[in-house]
Amino acid sequence: MDKKDYLPIIGLEIHIELKTKSKMFCQCQADFFGKEPNSQVCPVCLGLPGALPVPNKKAVEWTILLAKALNCQINHFSKFDRKHYFYPDLPKGYQISQYDQPIANNGFIKIYYEKGLEKKFRIRRVHLEEDTGKLIHQGEETLIDFNRSGLPLVEIVTEPDFNKSEDVKRFLEELQVIIRYLDVSYADMEKGSMRLEPNISIKKLKTQNLKLKTNEIDNLPSYKVEVKNINSFRFVKQAIDYEVERQIKILEKGEMPKQETRGYDSKKGITYSQRSKEEADDYRYFPEPDIPPMVFSSQEIERTKLPELPYQRYQRYLKNFSLRQQEAFLLTRDKKIADFFEEVNNKFQTQSQKLSLKIDNSSQAIANLIVNKKISLNLDVNQFVNKAITLLLPKKTDKELLKKVINKILTENKKAVSDYQNGKKNALMFLVGQVMRELKGKVEVKEVIEELNIRVRS
Amino acid sequence: MNLLGKTVLEIKSLIEKKKISYNELWEFFLKRIKKYNPRLNVFLTIVDKKTNKIPIAVKDNFCTKDIRTTAASLVLDNFIPPYESTVTKRLIDNGFSVIGKTNMDAWAHGSSTETSDYRPTKNPWDLERSPGGSSGGSAAAVISYLAPAAIGSETAGSIRGPASWCGVIGLKPTYGRVSRYGLIAMGSSLDCPGPLTLSVKDAAYILELIAGKDFFDATSSLKEKEKYSDFLNKKKSYILGIADDYFEGVDKETEKKVNEAIEIFKKMGHRIKKIKLLSPKYAISVYTILQRVEVSSNLARYDGIKYGNSRQNFKEEAKKRMMLGAYTISFGCFDAYYKKAQQVRTLIIQDFNEKFKEVDMILSPTMPITALKLGEFKKYPFFGEKMDVLAEPAAVAGLPAISFPVGLDKNNLPIGLQLVGRYFEEKEILNLSYQFEKETEFFGVIKKGIERYSD
Amino acid sequence: MKKKLTKDDIYYLADLINVSLTEVEAESFIDPLEKTVQYIENLNELKTEGVKPTFQTTHLTHIFFKDGEENQRGLNSDEVFRNTKNKKNRYFKIQKIR
Hints:
The complex is a heterotrimer of chains A (458), B (455) and C (98).
Chain A: E1 6-17, H1 43-46, H2 57-69, E2 73-74, E3 77-78, E4 81-84, E5 94-97, E6 104-112, E7 118-130, E8 134-138, E9 141-145, E10 152-158, H3 165-182, E11 194-204, E12 225-228, H4 233-252, E13 260-265, E14 270-276, E15 286-287, E16 294-295, H5 298-303, H6 310-320, H7 325-331, H8 335-354, H9 362-371, H10 381-392, H11 399-412, H12 414-421, H13 426-438, H14 445-457
Parallel strand pairs in A: 12-13
Antiparallel strand pairs in A: 1-10, 1-11, 2-6, 3-16, 4-5, 4-15, 6-7, 7-10, 8-9, 11-12, 13-14
Helix pairs in contact in A: 3-4, 6-7, 7-9, 8-9, 8-10, 11-13, 11-14, 12-13, 13-14
Chain B: H1 8-16, H2 22-40, E1 43-46, E2 54-59, H3 86-92, E3 96-102, H4 136-143, E4 149-154, H5 160-166, E5 169-172, E6 192-197, H6 200-210, H7 228-231, E7 239-243, H8 252-267, E8 271-275, H9 280-298, H10 316-328, H11 335-355, E9 361-365, H12 392-397, E10 401-408, E11 414-420, H13 426-440, H14 445-451
Parallel strand pairs in B: 2-3, 2-4, 7-8, 7-9
Antiparallel strand pairs in B: 1-3, 4-6, 5-6, 5-10, 9-11, 10-11
Helix pairs in contact in B: 4-5, 6-13, 9-10, 9-11
Chain C: H1 7-16, H2 23-40, H3 77-81, E1 87-88, E2 91-95
Antiparallel strand pairs in C: 1-2
């Protein structure tokens, strides 16, 4: 059997921890980093008898903001539901989540590839829920810390539109940048503020059908495997590739992969079985009676204004600054750096005008300086601009000094000169380097090469 | 100074006039509790500490900070809440102090206080009978004068029922009028904290203290609370609705006394109008489904890890309710039961709203019979839902209601009458109850009850 | 939703709500649960097509709290652990789960 007969069908379930000050349903501090275990808890997030939840307005607003950035439809009517299951990290025996009326539905992210290729990955829903406590396994015991219990989590579920692990990685990267632009979460996979659970299955195809996109294929495979515990960007591709391989091997034997939950072991690079999921869990969802529903007016939804998003900024950089794709892309990966670039570039333009300096493609040059880390980004704007001016200014060559230094270098490096005259091209660059060093870079390389060429040939 | 039978407001006045000290007050009640509690089993926890506040009895499903709270279940046998419920906080901030936590049906599952893990409370009128439930301990505390007033909670009949069987006043406010924060949840969309008292003035006074928006309870109403006490003296006439359905299957003596009360209302200038309401049997089904689902969910947090004892300590009644609750929203049953129940709930509410265009209040007996003997409940499959049949429609709709005594039957057991009002019209039902109290003194029922416990 | 409840159903439900039942208990629950289910079927006598369900009698909507509000309910270590024996250092402790 040829691998080309198998099409991976991958859907993603992503959880984003919002960086609100308070938790989702109580006023406990949400930031639990470095805090003593079970020190940021109250009757509500600890699930004490009689405690009641009240939702955090900012968490809801940020969910709408994020959903809008993902091109979703915001539902006018939304509510919370209870999702029941028993687990020690779930203090109430149910999680307050959203079931049939989430905050948003039907969005997408477009990923742009080279040569004008773009792919659209659809988002099925965006909803809001609370996080559980943390379990730590120690020998024969399990320890529980409820500091994280009740933190706001946004859950993003995509359609099974992914067929390649590379696409999943790009999607997540773009999603991460968008989220950080909105500044609603740190979206850090290693720290757990962004969590991924891909659902993976494989479809057997006749080779000619491989050109079809997922949403044109009628029957999706009858099983899917959920993979948990992928806690770094590095492992995303590895975990998915491994699981795809594993499933293909089973199919090649003529068998069906089991519907189950598997964990990813990054040390061994494998997935291992965690829980069989023959039937769907009976979560017994029903509307949360302690929280009135949310009704969003059209005005309220309109009022949520999106800032400029990464892809829009990228396009603006191509158009307004004539940047190359590569630098435009790299700069816009981090909003702070992009902001810095624009500030610095602005100042640079102003300064250049004042000093009557003429530098071609200055924006591109500034972009290069930043991307290649030629100047420290820790400097403030003025310091950076001054350094940039120094570096980018065409250097006025002192012809007399140049001739003097060249004479000196040629005298001191007779072997190199004869090497070059005998055909060793590298020797010239060596001499150029020596000259540049002597002149402390205060000369245009072009001119040094020109002069040297004239002198050694003669 | 003979304190026996003095209402909260009377005590307040005596204290202010320095006719009695707080020390004497507490001595008085603590002595009585010591004497009568062993035979009545009213209190599960007694707070043996005198304070400069008026003592009040609180049902043991309100979380009282640093005071043991069990919901009458062994699951919480040694639970000491680290926080205060809003209701008790408001009472404490306004001159009250908890003298003890009263017995109840475990988790409020019941109408007789017999499902308590700590044995039933006895009806002070007849120790072989039930005081009603689930706020049986609270009602008994008041009529035996072990406290001048008590706080109970009602999901469907749990304040009104015991008030009726013990011969006191029991007020169930509109759902959302009083905060549920700190009330151990039973039916989240139904639970209402409320007072049980010896006078209507006391009920109005306590309601004023505990009602109002609470930021810790998202379902507490944004409507301003009112000056219920001030409104008591207004001379108002009302149109009272009577539905035949609500008199069906009612005991003859109960019917007689309630009809006598109706005649008195007529004489006082109020109008009586016959109305036709949806049969209460639908409210029973709606209530059964909603309450079981919410109970099943609300009891999921008792896993014995952070607090409490293992789930093996749940008894038969709790287990049955949780299982039925799980059943009606699993197996793909959601639409057939839960959603259907919520739709019928809408019909019940619409029905009430229609009738409230013609009448101001609806009048009926509180319970179909007087206090049952302990153990008699086992005859009923829903463990007392049928006892609450007259209470359930108003409960399901979230309407306010009050019960007060209108006489005794031939066994010397109290008979209660209930008034159901429009949403947030507590002041109207209190007003009419006050008028009736002034006119009849409730036929001396309360006085008789307390005199049974004069030392 | 007409199906007779079996003992297996009872055990399934007990599992869902995380309580264990003895055989005797499971047996004894079938009848009362059946009876209750039969009773609540009376709701089918009423027409509810197009009727909106009432999840909340308050008609409240859009109730929130402001992010960053002062926390008046934080619990200290004593308060957190006073009701349990299952603790180790500052954690809740249970027997290892898979």
